[in-house]
Amino acid sequence: MLKKLIILLPVFCLLALNLTWPARAQTAEPPVVHAVMFWMSGCKHCQQTISMTLPPIREKYGTQLDLQLIQIYSLEHIDALYALGASYGIEKRMIGVPFLVIGDQPLVGYDQVRLEFDELIETHLAAGGVDLPDRLELQPLLAAAPDSDSPTPAALREEPVPAPMDFQPAPSGMRDNGFVLAIIVLVGMLLALLYAIARLLLFMFSNVHLRPAPAWMTNWAIPVLSVAGLLVAAYLSYIEVTLIQAFCGPVGDCNAVQSSSYARLFGILPVGVLGGLGYLAILLAWWANRQKWGILSSYAPLALFGMAFFGTIFSAYLTYLEPFVIMAVCIWCVTSAILITLIMLASLQEALRALPAEIEYVE
Length: 363
Known about the structure:
It is built from 13 helices and six strands. It is an alpha+beta fold.
């Protein structure tokens, strides 16, 4: 009898192990990824990251993502953030907010957080989760920051105590030049619109005689300006669709503008794509005007001017947003605004001549 019990004992142990294993598996804690992001009041990139990028990520991972949001609000915190960036080998001029640390990987700026954060979470969850790195440079920021909760909209609108940091900041003089340029272009566009409206009203309510527009204006100015605008719009579309860094030159911050919520119409259609379609339609109207298609060709100048007129209004709105709302200027957008305004002015004379009116034209 004793021998039988000794033989059956391992069997009973295996059965007991099999019965308890599912229960143990069910009580196993899911992996958790710990991360921290530093933000600053008055930073537009931080606002976009917190309001647009993070909510769907937090909803996706739930309790498996422990993300602390810590506000940088003093010069001491800025110095500590510089020290943390230096520990990762990041140059001081490249350090800014939002600054996110996940595992031992820093993500600097809106674009990096938006493009890489989700993938890094997946990688760390597959590896069983990750804690915050045990870096001496990180401890002062974690210990000294009183705000580790999600910021409220009111907090995002407060003015910062120190000057806000931006991702890949340009010198302040360059930014001021960009703002001044955008405001000058905006004023010029508004004056051009008022001039076009005044010419239209004068033509409709007075018996004026119109000469044809100069040949150089209709033969090559409009198509050349339209092709240039189409190239600019194609580049902006490429930037907006592929989400790569734009070449901005010495004026403005194109990437800040292209990463804003205003870069897409209704949050769906990239503004660059819309502009490209507009310039293409203007080219088609110019070409149709040069064909002998009867009434279609006769009304092509009106269609061309109408598209350029409303394009100028829309471009003026976008140009206003850059210095006064987005707080950044895109030199490519300003260039497109200038081009569409010139097209409107160049097409005005022929559009007025195409209007049905009881007048004699002076040839």
